[in-house]
Structure formats: C-alpha cells, structure tokens
Amino acid sequence: MATIYHEKFEVSAQSTQHSVGGRSYCNDYLHGLLDRGILLAGVSQLREHHYVERLDAPFHVLLCCQEGHGHVLEGDTRRPLGPGQLVVLPAHRHGGFVLGSPYWRLAWLVLDDVAAWDFLKQPQALWAQAQAAESLYLSIACLHQEVQLGQRGHTQGALQLMLDTLQREMTALQAARRPTRAQQLGALLEKIYLNPATCWTVPMLAGQLGMSQTTLTRLCQQQHRATPQQLIIAERMKRAYAWLQTGYGNVTEVATACGYEEVASFSRRFAQHFGLPPGQIEPRYAPGAG
C-alpha cells in the first residue's frame, strides 16, 4: 500500500536536476540503492524559482549546498543554507526548502525511514558543516553518469564512491549528535508527536529517560518553561493541528487519533491551545503518494 503524505512542489523549467533512484520505476534506476536505505540521490542546479514543502513524508531529506544559497523550512520558520553546509530534514515532520539566490547548486539524497537512519529521527532538522561538500556532489553526479552509460558504465565503483563519501558526512553528523538530556527529551517529545493516541503519563516519560519525576519536571521547566503534562498536551495538539491541515479526517476522527475519547473534551483543549475551535482549521495541502 502506498504511503500518503502531503506535498507542495514548484520547480522552474530553467533548473536542471539529475538523479538515480532505488526503485525500478525511476528513470535512472540502480539496483542496490534501496538495500542501503537510499530512495533517490541527485544533484541540482536551481534557477529562478524552486519551492518544496512536505508534511508527514515517510523519508528523510539530506541537502548539501555547494554554491549559492537557499532557505530551509521548519514549520513556519526559515533558516539559510549556504555553501559547505549540510542539513537533514527528518521524516514525518513539516519541512522543506526554497531557492534563496539566483543560482543554487546542491547535492541531495532521499533516505528511507529504516533502521540504518534511525539517528536522523529528531524533532528538528540536523545541521552540520559538510566534510567535503564538493566531493559529495561530484560522486552523485558521477554515479548518475555511469548509470546512464548502461552496461558500459562502472556503476558499482561509482556507487561505492558515493556511499563512502556519504558515510563520511554521516559519521561527522552522528558524532555531533551525541544526545544531551535536552536532546533526549526532544526525541521523547517527538515520539509523543508521532504516537499521540498512546496513553502517555509523566511516570512513563521519566522512566524512558531514566530519571526521577522531579528531575524530569525541572528539565522541562528549564528547556520549555512547561510541566511534563503540559508538553504531552502540546505535542498532541500540534499533531491534531497538522492532521486537520492535511485533511487527514474530521474533528471526531482526529480527536480519536490523538487519544481523546470525548470530542467535546478535545475541542475545548484545542481551543484553549490555539485560540480557535478545530472545526475552523482549513486543509492547506494537496495529498501526494510515495
């Protein structure tokens, strides 16, 4: 069964993009990419206009900038991505990217949501200084060229080069992500967001973090100026708002999916949190399938 997510995708005809896919329906397909958790690997030279925004996509997106700059979208915020910078947009979040200069050259990979990339599952985008941005770009471009040569191409050698280059970037990214207590709390809040129907309790959160409820409460106050119970509610409300925006279901269905047995209770809580009832949220995305 196809996974349904929501996507806004606008690209100028002046841009050029080349990619190799891990699935047989891709124009340039290479057997073995999918086994390594890679759905697509590509390079882009973007001009004039480019806008991508996704909600709940079941894959991670890695962007590595070589020239020019763009902006990475996280919810309603934007952050510039310039030469030598690398960012990963985690799966099942609200994010995207947009052209921010007349010309933007970048390498990118779409990574499957599989165990190999579990360390990418974070509540926010992961940022790093690329170890060798140009090498990553050239290795992906080389792989695309060799795949296009068919039987004459040295695809396995080019694939290994790209994998080694990618691993160098991922190793550095992993080293920079050794979790602090605050990051562990962020990852747990991510779990609440992704599984809002679970009966989350403060003792459960404290147990998963390996700390007392008192320590958890202090950490939550320091990091978020809220109690653990308030954070549980906030994550459920964020998920509810996102689902209503996507047209996932009506208010009753979203309330149930967020763990509420009574729609009236859900609606009161939603109105308290956002200042308007859930029935007033209008869908803003067109569904996409991947």
Task: Explain what this protein looks like in three dimensions.
This is AraC-type DNA-binding protein. One of its GO terms (molecular function) is DNA-binding transcription factor activity. Residues 183-284 form the HTH araC/xylS-type domain. With 290 residues, the protein is α+β, with helices and mostly antiparallel strands. The chain has two domains: 4-175, Regulatory protein AraC (Jelly Rolls, Sandwich), CATH 2.60.120; 181-283, Homeodomain-like (Arc Repressor Mutant, subunit A, Orthogonal Bundle), CATH 1.10.10.60. It contains eight helices and twelve strands. It has helices at 133-148, 155-175, 181-194, 202-209, 213-224, 228-246, 251-257, 263-274, and strands at residues 4-11, 16-21, 38-47, 50-55, 59-67, 70-74, 77-81, 85-89, 94-99, 103-112, 126-129, 287-289. The strands form two sheets. The chain has a six-stranded antiparallel β-sheet, with no helix packed on it. The protein has a six-stranded antiparallel β-sheet with strand order 2-3-10-5-8-11, covered by helices on one side. It starts with a strand and ends with a strand.
